[in-house]
């Protein structure tokens, strides 16, 4: 037996198992991480039950609390007492505590509070508890009492709930119209007014400010201002309409207060919903998340501008990176004389992929933004100086910086693809009398196109997840306008934009209310991970198919 | 020969020519494009260098004017306005002449209202930005004068008009109570409060403080004067110095004695310290306060200049201490501090000037600007010009290009003793709310933080990735390998912002709450693995056949999960039994180890996670491509698989593994988002695993958007980027070269 055990040790089997444990740990970490993001990110949109607790506070009084249980954990009682929490004498050494989202930030000043299990004396789930998502101040938890129109009661009791829903629909419609008026119509007029001002300044700078030209500008300005006044009036009317309805809600402790419907985004009674309703609710929330604009310093609402900004930036980057990367790879592989210098260049290009991305950001800020952008402003946009047009971080510079960052990826992948194409194919084409350019264009490049695709996909995956350089060259936490809109020239490369990765950083770390924002950050992270994992899987699949194809060719 | 119609021959040759032309165009186009892209990539390095380069430039100065001084009265003082276009000359006879500094042409002349019968015997200037000077008179009074300059733009041209006014009234203020001559005078002003100090040969020291009277009725309210005086045993005083906040008063004698008085309350002046500044026998030539008024610079006749400021000792009492000395050849005459930087100018009797920077501890520039000895020197408020008067009565105006004197090798990388600190230290502090602030730009704490973060990341990543690579490449069943490799590759593609976010908001609180459990995982995991392995070897053969060799990793998944769960589950109990229920608190109170929630442990775990795939895939490739006949030969000679692995395979693949680790270090060093989000970003120099750090890359991300373009701060941040670039580039190139050599070796085997 002893001998046998020695043998087992000497054979090295235990060490092999230790190696295996390293693999298992790595695998568990990856899948665990993805699962964590998925669960936390997707769970947020499910309507959680609203609980009512009878809670004995640290001063001995019993409070009624209403809210959603967001989290629970086990904490040692000693640590709780260290933190100043008064626990009952008979509390066990390890107590469970819950993170309760009580909402009503406008009333209590706090969205969240921790409550400990031993201090809860009673709990129930009231069917008529209402959750209101509001434009400001976060969620509201309470009970619906009455519905008012212009201050007069129109519905009360059970009948108030369906009435509320139909009136909310009206408010939503009005809100959509107001948004359209403000953003598109009035925004457009403002944009044109600003252009007129710049036009006038340009004429002055060029010394062509003849009375005729100025009068023309003035005339157009008057027209626009008249239009602006009309829109303003219309907007005011809409605002009057939206302020018509309000409701009386009661909160825990019996207090009643009036809330204008204008403030309410959505009202629901989670304890009264069946599974089907909850699923419907879930998907409508999910849709809101990907299609709406953020509210309340990015902690509520959707992330549409961030998705849009990321996509725009990645598209622009792809347009820039593909031709340059492919040309450089073709030159290195097909035209350049193979020797120590080419080898050196190849190593250098390869290693640039490992240079920290923040270095590219610094370069982009110094060279693109301040140097190139500053000079472009002086040459082409003197009328808006000292306000910079291109001499400030923006979409174009961000795309260029990321193109530079990812060009090694495309070069390496394309070169690999070119190297895999058997010589016989090139020689065959040349033997038939084709020139080198024709050989390249007609046979080699089409065959290498999947490799280029792989390179491009990997470049996109890297660019989509990169945040550090973007912080220097163009992303902002909240962009007032999208880089694409209805005002000529329609695509505004000089604008700053929002980005999924930066959104995660900003909301998770710079937001005033991290606790409330956290689920949204998880959801954003999930979206980003999904995009990147899918892109990478696509690249891997293409690469594998490519290998199969050339294996067949080589035989 | 067959007949061909000329037209087809012509067309086909034209067609051929077109094709050849196209071919040549393509060749040119591709070459141009390719070389262009490669140059664009190289441009990164060159541009970083281009921005950093001015930091290393040698400062220089060139003459911009030289002319005779108008008038023949002795000169008291020279000064220049902001643009260094107009200079003021104060004469002993009470005349102030404003000259154009470039050619000496007169701009304005003002005679100061000196009382009849009194002559000027001494002179002092307050902090340069105030423009206030005091003339000490032979009747014990002092005339306080302000020279200032109005800038206007008639017809878009800048016109500077000099003017003089008298902030304490145009009658002199009595300083000496016994009306003895004011042999030495000092003045200081801040926010309307003035302090004057005087000394007469009769060893009498006198102080006057003028505070604006609070009066609601009158705008031009007068001043309220407080006076005090006393005798000193020092004689032959060289300088009286008052600091801008008017709390400290320094009296320096020619023999090298310093008396330091606290004058916060004029009626209760007391001596704080008296000490020698120079070795016996060495005499003081000149002394001045450095910009900000915290340091005393003392020039002595042995050619050395020493810097002194007060330092807190272990009893929390402040006393003056010599910080550093600067040596200069030649006889010194005058020491002039710059207006806003910690620099001073020395003027010597052979016409040379030398500019020193104190905290960067180096001679910035030395230049002979006159043939004869220098009598008076003025430094422009922006430190971009010098104006000097020589013994021959000639004025010399020099432009100075000296924009980054605060950067030197020692300022960036060595310990520096900054004003207000008790000892030399490595400090990165680039900005602050106060105006007198001196940026502290030591890259050492940032580099240290970078390496610390990389170290903890590697500590976690190397064992996991190398062991994992060994198993995956050498033992794992091919089917499982097909799943594992892409999974790990996906791990590499995960955006670091997500890892950083999870590390900061999920892992950091988890680690804090389950600290004993986290350490228990590291200890338990090998043990439970071995236990599971042993149990498996004891298991009935029938069961063992279900899972073939090469699937051990899959078998261990539940074991690892169970271990982690167990460790975390017993964590509160462990904490209760061993650490009084609160381990971070226990660490702090029992062992004195501070605990940050966002610490190196969290960074190590998160960044280790990010680095694992890099090392894993390179090491796995290296091990997998070890030629099979090598291991087969070893096995055939009777070695066990483990022996073959350790003695043959790993030995052959070790350069590849090494190159993987180098790539991993390269990645860990440059990683930005994880450290930005998972640490507190405080630039501390502390190896503790429970403390955070600030890395070069995170520092760039935090400070770059706010850095003023072209400033020293901006360029130093570029330098940090350049350091990162060069470091990672070298590491990656090294790794790449190792890998290529390995590939050649394999192909020859």
| CATH fold descriptor of the largest domain in chain A | MetI-like fold
Q: Return the CATH class of the domain at 454-748 in chain B.
A: Mainly Alpha
Radius of gyration of chain A, in Å, reads: 31 Å
Supply the CATH architecture of the largest domain in chain A. Answer: Orthogonal Bundle
Helix content of chain A: 55-70%
Order of helices and strands of chain A: HHEEHEHEEEEEHHEEEHEEHHHHHHHHH
State the low-pLDDT regions of chain B, or none: 1-8
Task: Let me know the number of strands of chain A.
Answer: 13
Q: What is the name of the CATH architecture of the domain at 454-748 in chain B?
A: Orthogonal Bundle
Radius of gyration of chain B: 37 Å
Oligomer: heterodimer
What is the residue-averaged pLDDT of chain A?
Answer: 84
Structure classification of chain B: alpha+beta
What kind of sheet is the major sheet of chain A?
A: 6 strands, antiparallel
Mean pLDDT over all positions of chain B: 86
How much of the sequence lies in strands of chain B comes to 25-35%
Give the DSSP E fraction of chain A (strand runs of 2 or more residues): 5-15%
Q: How much helicity do the residues of chain B have?
A: 40-55%
Uncertain parts of chain A: none
User: What is the CATH topology classification name of the domain at 454-748 in chain B?
Assistant: MetI-like fold
CATH homologous superfamily designation of the largest domain in chain A: MetI-like
């Amino acid at each position: 037996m002893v001998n046998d055990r020695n043998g087992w040790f000497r054979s090295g089997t235990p060490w092999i198992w230790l190696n295996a444990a390293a693999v298992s740990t790595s695998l568990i970490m990856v899948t665990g991480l993805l699962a964590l993001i998925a669960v936390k990110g997707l769970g947020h949109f499910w309507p959680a039950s609203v609980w009512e607790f009878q809670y004995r506070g640290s001063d001995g009084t019993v409070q009624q609390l209403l809210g959603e249980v967001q989290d629970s954990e086990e904490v040692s009682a000693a640590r709780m007492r260290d933190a100043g929490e008064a626990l009952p004498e008979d509390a066990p050494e390890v107590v469970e505590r819950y993170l309760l989202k009580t909402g009503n930030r406008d009333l209590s000043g706090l969205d969240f509070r921790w409550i400990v299990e031993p201090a809860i004396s009673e709990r129930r789930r009231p069917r008529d508890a209402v959750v209101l998502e509001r434009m400001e101040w976060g969620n509201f938890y309470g009970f619906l009492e009455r519905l008012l129109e212009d201050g007069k009661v129109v519905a009360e009791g059970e009948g108030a709930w369906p009435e509320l829903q139909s009136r909310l629909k009206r408010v939503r419609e009005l809100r959509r119209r107001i948004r359209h008026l403000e953003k598109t119509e009035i925004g457009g007029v403002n944009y044109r007014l600003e252009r007129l001002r710049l036009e006038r300044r340009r004429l002055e700078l060029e010394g062509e400010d003849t009375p005729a030209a100025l009068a023309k500008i003035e005339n157009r300005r008057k027209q626009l201002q008249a239009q602006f006044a009309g829109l303003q009036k219309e907007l005011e009317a809409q605002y009057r309409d939206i302020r018509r309805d309000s409701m009386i809600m009661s909160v825990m402790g019996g207090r009643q207060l009036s809330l204008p419907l204008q403030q309410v985004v959505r009202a629901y009674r989670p304890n009264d919903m069946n599974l089907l309703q909850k699923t419907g609710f879930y998907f409508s929330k999910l849709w809101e998340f990907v299609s709406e604009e953020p509210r309340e310093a990015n902690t509520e609402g959707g992330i549409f501008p961030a998705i849009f900004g990321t996509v725009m930036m990645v598209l622009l980057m792809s347009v820039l990176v593909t031709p340059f990367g492919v040309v450089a790879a073709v030159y290195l592989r097909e035209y350049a004389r193979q020797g120590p210098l080419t080898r050196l260049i190849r190593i250098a290009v390869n290693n640039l992929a490992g240079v920290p991305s923040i270095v590219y950001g610094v370069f982009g800020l110094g060279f693109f933004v301040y140097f190139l952008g500053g000079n472009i402003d002086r040459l082409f946009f003197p009328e808006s100086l000292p306000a910079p047009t291109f001499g400030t971080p923006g979409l174009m510079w961000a795309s260029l910086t990321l193109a530079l960052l990812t060009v090694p990826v495309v070069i390496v992948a394309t070169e690999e693809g070119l190297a895999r194409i058997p010589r016989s194919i090139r020689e065959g084409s040349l033997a038939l009398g084709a020139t080198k350019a024709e050989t390249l264009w007609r046979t080699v490049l089409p065959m290498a196109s999947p490799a280029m695709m792989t390179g491009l996909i990997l470049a996109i995956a890297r660019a989509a997840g990169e945040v550090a350089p973007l912080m220097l060259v163009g992303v902002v936490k909240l962009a007032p306008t999208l880089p694409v809109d209805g005002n000529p020239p329609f695509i505004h490369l000089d604008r700053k934009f929002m980005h999924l990765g930066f959104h995660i950083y900003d909301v998770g770390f710079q937001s005033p209310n991290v606790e409330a924002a956290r689920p949204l950050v998880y959801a954003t992270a999930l979206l980003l991970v999904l995009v990147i994992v899918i892109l990478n899987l696509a690249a891997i699949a293409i690469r594998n198919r490519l290998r199969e194809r050339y294996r067949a060719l080589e035989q | 020969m067959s007949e061909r119609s000329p037209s087809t021959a012509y067309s086909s040759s034209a067609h051929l020519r077109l094709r050849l032309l196209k071919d040549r165009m393509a060749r040119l186009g591709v070459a141009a494009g390719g070389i262009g892209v490669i140059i664009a990539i190289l441009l990164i390095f060159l541009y970083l260098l281009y921005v950093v380069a001015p930091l290393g430039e040698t400062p220089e100065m060139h003459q911009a004017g030289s002319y005779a001084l108008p008038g023949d009265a002795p000169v008291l003082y020279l000064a220049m306005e902001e643009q260094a276009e107009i200079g003021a000359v104060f004469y002993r006879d009470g005349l102030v002449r404003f000259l154009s500094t470039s050619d000496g042409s007169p701009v304005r002349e003002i005679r100061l209202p000196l009382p009849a019968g009194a002559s000027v015997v001494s002179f002092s200037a307050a902090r340069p930005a105030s423009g206030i000077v005091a003339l000490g008179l032979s009747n014990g009074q002092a005339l306080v004068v302000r020279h200032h300059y109005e800038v206007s733009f008639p017809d878009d041209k800048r016109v500077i008009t000099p003017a003089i006014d008298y902030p304490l009234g145009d009658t002199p203020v009595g300083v000496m109570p016994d009306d003895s001559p004011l042999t030495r005078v000092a003045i200081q002003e801040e926010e309307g409060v003035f302090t004057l100090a005087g000394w007469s040969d009769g060893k009498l020291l006198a102080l006057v403080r003028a505070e604006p009277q609070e009066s609601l009725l009158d705008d031009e309210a007068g001043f309220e004067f407080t006076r005090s005086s006393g005798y000193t045993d020092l004689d032959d005083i060289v300088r009286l110095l008052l600091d801008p906040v008017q709390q400290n008063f320094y009296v320096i004698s020619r023999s090298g004695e310093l008396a330091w008085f606290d004058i916060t309350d004029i009626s209760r002046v007391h001596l704080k310290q008296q000490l020698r500044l120079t070795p016996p026998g060495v005499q003081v030539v000149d002394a001045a306060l450095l910009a900000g008024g915290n340091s005393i610079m003392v020039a002595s006749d042995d050619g050395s200049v020493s810097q002194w400021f007060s330092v807190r000792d272990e009893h929390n009492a402040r006393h003056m201490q010599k910080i550093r000395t600067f040596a200069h050849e030649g006889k010194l005459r005058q020491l002039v501090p710059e207006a806003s930087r910690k620099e001073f100018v020395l003027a010597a009797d052979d016409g040379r000037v030398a500019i020193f920077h104190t905290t960067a501890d180096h001679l910035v520039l030395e230049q002979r600007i006159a043939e004869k000895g220098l009598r008076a020197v003025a430094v422009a408020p922006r430190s971009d010009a010098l104006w000097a008067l020589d013994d021959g009565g000639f004025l010399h105006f020099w432009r100075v290009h000296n924009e980054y004197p605060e950067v030197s090798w020692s300022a960036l990388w060595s310990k520096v003793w900054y004003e207000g600190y008790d000892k030399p230290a490595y400090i990165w502090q680039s900005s602050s709310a106060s105006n007198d602030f001196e940026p502290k730009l030591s890259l050492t704490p940032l580099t240290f933080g970078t390496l610390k973060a990389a170290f903890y990341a590697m500590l976690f990543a190397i064992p996991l990735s190398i062991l994992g690579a060994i198993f995956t490449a050498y033992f794992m069943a091919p089917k499982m390998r097909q799943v594992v490799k892409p999974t790990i590759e996906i791990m590499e593609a995960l955006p670091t912002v997500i890892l950083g976010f999870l590390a900061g908001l999920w892992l950091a609180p988890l680690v804090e709450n389950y600290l004993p459990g986290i350490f228990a995982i590291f200890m338990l995991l090998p043990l439970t693995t071995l236990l599971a392995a042993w149990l498996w070897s004891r298991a009935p053969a029938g069961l063992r056949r279900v899972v073939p060799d090469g699937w051990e990793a899959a078998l261990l998944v539940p074991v690892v999960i169970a271990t982690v769960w167990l460790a975390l589950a017993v964590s509160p109990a462990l904490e209760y039994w061993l650490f009084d229920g609160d381990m971070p608190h226990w660490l702090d109170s029992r062992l004195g180890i501070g605990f940050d929630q966002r610490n190196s442990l969290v960074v190590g775990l998160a960044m280790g996670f990010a680095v694992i795939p890099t090392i894993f895939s390179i090491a796995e490739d290296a091990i997998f491509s070890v030629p099979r006949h090598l291991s087969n030969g070893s096995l055939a000679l009777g070695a066990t698989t483990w022996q073959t692995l350790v003695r043959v395979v790993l030995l052959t693949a070790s350069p590849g593994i090494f190159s993987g680790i180098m790539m991993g270090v390269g990645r860990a060093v440059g990683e930005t988002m994880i450290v930005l989000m998972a640490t507190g970003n405080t630039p501390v120099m502390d190896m503790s695993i429970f403390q955070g750090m600030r890395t070069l890359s995170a520092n760039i991300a935090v400070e770059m958007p706010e850095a003023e373009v072209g400033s020293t701060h901006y360029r130093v941040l570029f330098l940090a980027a350049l350091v990162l670039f060069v470091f990672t580039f070298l590491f990656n190139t090294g790794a790449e070269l190792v890998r290529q050599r390995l590939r050649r070796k394999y192909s020859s085997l």
